[in-house]
């Protein structure tokens, strides 16, 4: 019981440390609010762009990253059934709450799971400069604390779940025949559609 209390106190202290920075440096609040709410659109556009490069290795990476996210998100929901806490702005006073958020279970952070599932996968497959994706995921995790909607342990749990799942998927799934087959079937269908589209386009030009 004492240990549980200590962990809770550490969680709150770390939250205050980050969240209070918004009060000390208010000029940064719009930046972190944007990252916390809208960076997800950048991730979505990036996933689509990488997929439509039509590179098979890139598509295997996106497919594995998506599987990692689905698995990590599911594990997160199971973890949330065993442990739950409301957002800091619900449980604590004088929270620097910068974005709208409904009252619900904030453990673990879904945003963190989403970003780390994809960004860790990108780095595992590509390495090198792909570490910037991981740094972006870290920034998103910090932003969720900064704007007052998650505790540090909500974010940390999301990181650990995503890291474990993404690594497991990376080490096992690309070697599975079903992954290769799925990509080949998709690319075959895509090529057929492109061929039909080009034929229609050529016919319309001839007329």
UniProtKB/TrEMBL annotation:
> Which spans are transmembrane here?
31-53, 60-86, 106-125, 132-149, 155-173
For membrane topology, the record states: Multi-pass membrane protein
Question: Where on the tree of life does the source sit, at the highest rank?
Answer: Bacteria
* KW Transmembrane helix (keyword) present: yes
Location, primary (coarse class): membrane
User: Cellular component terms, GO, for this chain's entry?
Assistant: plasma membrane
Q: Which UniProt keywords apply?
A: Cell membrane, Hydrolase, Membrane, Transmembrane, Transmembrane helix
Location comes to: Cell membrane
Residue limits of the Phosphatidic acid phosphatase type 2/haloperoxidase domain? 61-170
- SMART domains linked to this entry: acidPPc (SM00014)
Q: Does the keyword Cell membrane apply?
A: yes
Molecular function as annotated in GO: undecaprenyl-diphosphatase activity
Name of this protein = Membrane-associated phospholipid phosphatase
- State the species of origin: Bacillus inaquosorum KCTC 13429
What does the organism's lineage look like at the top? Bacteria, Bacillati, Bacillota, Bacilli, Bacillales
């Amino acid at each position: 019981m004492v240990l549980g209390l200590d962990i809770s106190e550490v969680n709150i202290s770390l939250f205050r440390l980050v969240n209070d920075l918004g009060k000390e440096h208010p000029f940064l609040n719009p930046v972190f609010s944007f990252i916390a709410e809208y960076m997800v659109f950048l991730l979505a556009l990036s996933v689509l762009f990488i997929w439509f490069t039509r590179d098979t290795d890139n598509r295997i990476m996106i497919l594995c990253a998506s599987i990692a996210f689905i698995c990590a998100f599911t594990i997160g929901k199971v973890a949330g059934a065993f442990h739950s806490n409301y957002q800091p702005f619900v449980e604590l006073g004088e929270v620097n709450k910068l974005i709208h958020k409904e009252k619900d279970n904030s453990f673990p952070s879904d945003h963190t799971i989403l970003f780390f599932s994809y960004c860790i996968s990108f780095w595992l497959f590509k390495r090198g400069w792909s570490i910037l994706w991981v740094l972006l995921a870290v920034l998103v995790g910090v932003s969720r604390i900064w704007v007052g909607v998650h505790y540090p342990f909500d974010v940390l749990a999301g990181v650990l779940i995503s890291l474990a799942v993404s690594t497991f998927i990376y080490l096992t799934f690309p070697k599975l025949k079903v992954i290769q087959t799925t990509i080949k079937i998709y690319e075959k269908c895509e090529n057929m559609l492109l061929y039909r589209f080009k034929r229609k386009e050529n016919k319309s030009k001839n007329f």
